Structures are given as C-alpha cells and as structure tokens.
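step: validate -> pass
step: tokenize input -> pass
step: predict -> running
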Amino acid sequence: FGAAIWQPVFSSIYGFWDAIYSSFWADGYLSAYTFKHPPWNFGFMLSGAWWSLLPSAAILTGFIVTARMKGGSLSRMLRFSVCSIAIYLAAIFYLFLTVPILSSAKATYALGLIPCFALVGTAGFEVLMRRRFVRAAVHGLFACWAAGSFASYFVI
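step: predict -> pass
step: emit ->
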C-alpha cells in the first residue's frame, strides 16, 4: 500500500489496498473514461488522497476499538459493522485474486456499507479526539478534507 497516495488514478495496478483506497476516497478509475475529460477539479481530487489519511486512520482505529469493547448495544452494533466490512473486503479480495480485471477491486461496490463505515469511523474519531490539542488538529484536518472533497466533485 502507498501508491494510491502518490498516484491515486489507476493505482489498482499496484495492489488490492491501493485499488480500494483510491476508489474509496477519489475517482480511482476516472469514471471509466465515460467523458472525454471527467468534470472534476483534479487538483483537489488528487490532493484528497492525502487528506483522506485522517478518515482512514479513524476507520482503522474504529476497528481496533471495536475489538477491545466489552458487551453492550453499542458494541454489538459496531461488531456487526466491522463484520460486514470484513466480509465485503474478503469477497472483493477473492474477486481481485480470481478475476483478471483491474477494476475488480472497487470501493464503490460497498455503497450499501456506508452506514457501517460511518459508525466504525465515528468510534475511531472518538478515540482520536480524547486530547484537547489533538482534537483541534483533527477538527481542522477534517474540515480541510470535507472542503477539499466538496471542491473536487461539485464543480459549477
């Protein structure tokens, strides 16, 4: 993993995690060239791969936090979300290994799991924002990520 940060477009040739990351946080396949030139702001979209490290860290932290949680309704909900994401990743990884097409690993296949990603990411953000100064940095970086994502795809 790592090529998706430096070269987010068509980084699926470098591996599974690069394909998932670039299609999760950016248009990793340039909309399959359905347009002559996709109508995105490429400067914002390509820099979004860097800004998306924070939400990715929150999701990974949410996975770790969920594994350490004791019983309760929140724990069951987060475990269900983590299991759903893990099953999706296992299925996509199987396709990536067996189907010789670069676009077999796409995060857009997981659109139905957006609530699961949101719950796991929120659990991770809760841990990341426990300290006062870190909370301020996380809020600022998250605001930059949101503004950059908006400027990437909502072109007028």
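step: describe -> The chain has a mean pLDDT of 89.
step: cleanup -> pass
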